[in-house]
Amino acid sequence: MRLMKMLLILSLLAGMIYLAGCQGKEEAPSRFPESKLAIFKSSSCGCCGIFSQYMGREGFDVSVTNNEQMEQLKAEHGVPPELQSCHTTIVGDYFVEGHIPAEAFDKLLTEKPDIKGIAMPGMPSGSPGMPGSKQGPWIIYAVHNDGSTSEFMRI
Length: 155
Known about the structure:
Blueprint: H1 2-21, E1 37-41, H2 47-57, E2 62-66, H3 70-77, E3 88-91, E4 94-97, H4 102-111, E5 115-119, E6 139-144, E7 149-154
Parallel strand pairs: 1-2, 4-5
Antiparallel strand pairs: 1-3, 3-4, 5-6, 6-7
């Protein structure tokens, strides 16, 4: 009888341990496994954290770094002042400035244009990480290697 109780207890414990191991968070496969998104933001910015969570849910591998020298970081990567937003993402050799939807990242990483990066200035209502509803189209600009800009896409 004692042996039966012991076997029953051990079986229950083994089952609980097995089930506990199955409770882990399943992650979506990365959209672009070779392209990690490094998001830089000031420590006081809350919308940037929401944006990074959105990109993670969209299947991107994301890291977030608080940086109190954002102006310097933007200048080093060639983000024009008139196109700046609250956070800067570095992915490969590109910068991505602002609350840009995942589909623009898809286009950038699929087409791999010869540019410095893309930007959506300001903090448009309804964009990823921002409250409110979308008010008209979002224009995302390409920043070329010579510093000139053109429309990259409209969402």
